[in-house]
Amino acid sequence: MRTENTQKKTSAALGFFDGLHLGHRAVIEAAGKAGGKLGIPLAVLTFRGEPELPKFAGRHDMGLMTYGDREDMLRALGTQHIFAYDFADIRDMQPEAFFGTIVAGEMNAGYVVCGEDFRFGKDGSGDVRLLGELCAERGIGFETVPPVCVNGVPVSSTLIRELIRKGDVSGANEQLGHRFSLELPVLHGKRLGRTIGFPTINQVIPEFMVHPKHGVYASRAFVDGTAFPAITDIGIKPTVNSDGSEITETHLIGFSGDLYGKNVRIELIRFIREEKKFSGLDELKAQLETDRAFAEKNIFTDR
């Protein structure tokens, strides 16, 4: 699926760009810089089609952001043309066909930038050496960008997923260069939080998205562009929930109002504690008051 069309040569950034982490943005920024020197627009190759996209890797919970969020961030980074393809439609293309049809053809690349570990074509059989040769044959400029490191560790989507699954969202956010977030519809719940002074919104993380470790997080919630400090509990709610299903429950500090049916973005900032079963609502309320005090103190100072 192609989402753009251009008759003008482009400076093409190639990659999955699934989380738009610091390494991804280094590639895009390099392509934008080259395009500026050459007087040609920045174009980005990416993929869409969740929840089908993660299946190629053998599991479902791989997504670091939705395609809509990725497109918004790409535009914010100065991308003028986005070429988004359904992975299923191109996964069986041989590297040379992929290059000729998409990179040199539909993207009309005059300059190509990718990471040093970029693979393309069926089964990832094309590498940067081949890509450089194909570009040279057509007189297309070519550049690779080395990995970006944070605290001496190369940034990677695989590591970011691992950190999120372990609950280390602050570590994941360092690698992302932005906060891991989810924008999800607000669903009706049991309203038990209201009875103890902690009204919450209930949301469900889609299967295709990476699922954070169960527990309580300091977070921020965005309502109509306004950020509220919050505490988010991801898990099965053992004290009040009997069916064992996962739910994301967020208490917005300082907000009152009805959000049912609206989409609310939740940014996860820091893991506070493990999920646990309390003896009753009084003990749960006491713990939530401690969690709220922590969030109020730390949420806007933890960058």
Taking the alpha carbons of the first and last residues, their distance comes to 37 Å
Low-pLDDT stretches are none
Architecture of the largest domain, CATH level 2? 3-Layer(aba) Sandwich
How many helices? The count is 9
Query: What's the level 1 CATH class of the largest domain?
Result: Alpha Beta
Order of helices and strands: EHEHEHHEHEEEHHEHEEEEEH
* Apparent shape: elongated
Strand order of the largest sheet: 8-13-10-11-12-9
Q: Cα-atom Rg, whole angstroms?
A: 22 Å
Strand content: 25-35%
Mean pLDDT: 88
Main beta-sheet annotation:
6 strands, antiparallel
| CATH homology group of the largest domain | HUPs
Descriptive report:
- The chain is an alpha/beta fold.
- It folds into two domains: about 10-145, Rossmann fold (3-Layer(aba) Sandwich), CATH 3.40.50.620; about 180-300, Elongation Factor Tu (Ef-tu), domain 3 (Beta Barrel), CATH 2.40.30.30.
- About 30% of the residues lie in helices and about 25% in strands.
- It is built from nine helices and 13 strands.
- The chain has helices spanning about 20-40, 65-75, 85-90, 95-105, 130-135, 155-165, 170-175, 190-195, 280-300, and strands at about 10-15, 40-50, 80-85, 110-115, 140-145, 150, 155, 180-185, 200-205, 215-225, 225-235, 245-250, 265-275.
- The strands form three sheets. Strands 8-13-10-11-12-9 form a six-stranded antiparallel β-sheet. Strands 3-2-1-4-5 form a five-stranded parallel β-sheet, with helices on both faces.
- Strand 6 and strand 7 (about 155) form a beta hairpin.
